[in-house]
Amino acid sequence: MILEGKVNVGVPASSVWDFLMDVNRFASCVPGLEQVTQIDERTFDGVVRATVGPISGNVTFRSTILDSTPPSEMAVQTDGTDSVTRSAVSAKLSVRLNETIENRTELSYHADITVKGRLAILGDMVLRATGALMLEEFAKRLKAQLEKIEF
User: Fold this and answer.
1) Contact at 8 Å (CB) between 130 and 3?
2) How far apart are CA 62 and CA 100, in angstroms?
3) How far apart are CA 55 and CA 77, in angstroms?
């Protein structure tokens, strides 16, 4: 399943990059995130509470920054397991920052998400709708947090 989108924010790309690299600030934008622990500069573990169709539970995950070119792009791999069905969730995310005009940045993302196990039985439509809602909420929170920053 592919999910893509863009978020426009009124701050420079360097400020967006710094925000994304600060796991605690970034975590404040993730819907349902209950716990996050930074392992090293490129890796963090976490737990997200999520509801997909009739199933509610926690997804325990590890995210690793595979590649980055500050302050313009990064690739992140996330792998996790849900607590109810033990289904596997894997996502490869690419993020690009483009400073369109001075102090204005377009963040574009492309997520390639794979779900295996009982959650996958719910079907692409339910999974896509849940993912889209979570990304929409994330984008809203990210924009609000970033535009509070003084630069």
Assistant:
1) no
2) 32
3) 24
Q: φ and ψ at 118, to 5 degrees?
A: -60, -35
Q: Which residues 6+ apart lie within 8 Å of 76 measured at CB?
A: 63, 64, 65, 66, 92, 93, 94, 95
Neighbours of 86 (CB within 10 A): 11
> Which pTM does this prediction carry?
0.89
Strands 33-40 and 88-101: unpaired
Question: What phi, psi does 16 have (nearest 5°)?
Answer: -65, -45
Closest-CA residue to 73 (of 105, 44, 25) = 105
The structural domains of the chain, ordered by start, are: 2-146 (3.30.530.20)
Query: Which pLDDT does position 149 carry in this prediction?
Result: 63
pLDDT of residue 77: 98
Q: Please check whether residue 47 is in contact with residue 35, taking contact to mean a CB–CB distance below 8 angstroms.
A: yes
pLDDT tens readout for residues 35-90: 999 999 999 999 999 888 888 899 999 999 999 999 999 999 999 999 999 999 99
> Which H or E run includes 94?
strand 88-101
